Amino acid sequence: MVVGYGLHMLYHKLPSAAIAKPVLVSLLAVIVALSFIKTIDRNKDWKNSNTLFLHDVALVPNSVMVNTNAGGAWIDASEQAKDTMAAKACLQHSIQHFTKALQINYRYTNASVNRAICYLKLHEMDSALADVDTINKYYPLHPFLPRLSATLAGHYINEGLAYAQAGNNPMALVSFEKLTRAAPTNPDYWYNLAMAYAKMQQKANAQRTCAKALQIAPNHAPALQLMPQLNALP
């Protein structure tokens, strides 16, 4: 628009149309030629969306959207990697871009979701859980959150039960606390946490978490049975 306005002004400032027309045609020819060269050079970046995103993140490194797109491109690359080490390296690159996006805008939950996916692929469950905490805080209705929560919950419930069966109540308690963070609306998980607190003789915490289970599901039979037992504790 600026160039067009400038050419318009130039046309009217030249002494005659006989001079103005060839000058403008020459200038337009230069502009078209430069645009053509730039377009041809740009074509290689448009091989596919991933090559475009990975190229453009170097040009606009402080863009939330471009960093998130570049992170997604690295996730795609990890799925095409020939071996585990290459896939892991791609996921690490992806995490770097999602982290940069969140440093710019910590509320951009799409970056949190995708970074959590990367952490899950790398089996870094606690890091994924931290991102799920963020998503629950800023976008609890995110359509991908239930899938993330279910994956984390499956991990922490198995881990907590394994610790409990081995008699390692302190570690079981830690796992069940993480379980309720992963899936805070599941009454069964709050009941499991209440049981873990009871085994650790933490009456107040056991009562609080059992009450949470009943708040979510007032007819939750195991919690209804447990609460009088907790109230009777010294």
Question: Layout of helices and strands, plus pairs?
Answer:
Elements: H1 2-13, H2 17-43, H3 49-59, H4 64-80, H5 84-104, H6 109-121, H7 125-138, H8 145-165, H9 169-182, H10 187-199, H11 203-216, H12 221-231
Helix pairs in contact: 1-2, 3-4, 4-5, 4-6, 5-6, 6-7, 6-8, 7-8, 8-9, 9-10, 10-11, 11-12
Describe it for me?
With 234 residues, the chain is an all-alpha fold. The chain has 3 domains: 1-46; 61-143, Serine Threonine Protein Phosphatase 5, Tetratricopeptide repeat (Alpha Horseshoe), CATH 1.25.40; 153-234, Tetratricopeptide repeat domain (Serine Threonine Protein Phosphatase 5, Tetratricopeptide repeat, Alpha Horseshoe), CATH 1.25.40.10. It contains 12 helices and no strands. The chain has helices at residues 2-13, 17-43, 49-59, 64-80, 84-104, 109-121, 125-138, 145-165, 169-182, 187-199, 203-216, 221-231. Helix 6 (109-121) packs antiparallel against helix 7 and helix 10 (187-199) packs antiparallel against helix 11 (203-216). The termini are far apart.
The figure for the number of domains is 3
Radius of gyration, in angstroms, nearest whole number: 29 Å
Fraction in beta strands: under 5%
Summarize the main sheet. none
Question: Can you give keywords for this protein?
Answer:
234 residues, mainly alpha, Serine Threonine Protein Phosphatase 5, Tetratricopeptide repeat, 3 domains, 80% helix
